[in-house]
Amino acid sequence: MSLVRRATGALIHRAYKAIRAAGAITPASPGGTRFRHLGDGVSIAFPPGAIFGEQWIEIGDHTLIGERVSLSCGMGPGVDLGPDSILRIGGGCSIGRGSHIVAHQSIDIGEHVFTGPYVYITDQNHVYDDPETPIGRQWPRNSPVSIGAGSWLGAGAIILPGTRIGRQCVVAGGAVVRGEFPDHSVVAGVPAKLVRSYDPALGWHTPPRDPTLVDGLDRTTF
């Protein structure tokens, strides 16, 4: 029985490996032709997450997208989002499994950006202006997002609308990021704050604490 079980297991693993290879989305596959651009060597692993709005998505050469990653433009399939691309991922990137990149206006991810699993990036968020209308029924707001080349986003990081992350930055796992961070920043926390930066004279160092902040709160409002 053990021999039969081992043989069956090996067969299942070989079959699943073949299915994953056949199901991957590449420039040569039927699914790849729906994208505005898929560069040479791009592979979107099988099984994918929710993918729609492909005609507004550009992915650079040799970028690898993990399994169950969602890439979407717009609220749903079949919406006309205009003549220009909305989601742009540079070459040489690696997007971790289970991540979601949800674009409505503009998301730019530079070259050689790596992410851990389950990262969430979006340029749209719900509003709560009207205290009587359910938040899910209030029209959301968009604000462009950009992530600089060479950056690393740790597992479970959340990048919110309006965020601009510079080149060669580190986003700690689980951070919730909103705002602008210069090149060579390390950001961490909820909400994320600058915890380290790089200066040619000082190397990597902890920046001085803002004297107007107490435990992350603006002292000037006290």
UniProtKB/TrEMBL annotation:
UniProt-listed InterPro entries: Hexapep (IPR001451), Hexapeptide_acetyltransf (IPR051159)
Keyword Acyltransferase: yes
Entry EC number(s): 2.3.1.-
Keywords tagged on the record: Acyltransferase, Transferase
GO molecular function: acyltransferase activity
Signal sequence, renumbered to the chain: none
Family per record: Belongs to the transferase hexapeptide repeat family.
Entry-linked PANTHER family: ACETYLTRANSFERASE C18B11.09C-RELATED, SIALIC ACID SYNTHASE-RELATED
Designated name of the protein: Acyltransferase
Organism: Nonomuraea guangzhouensis
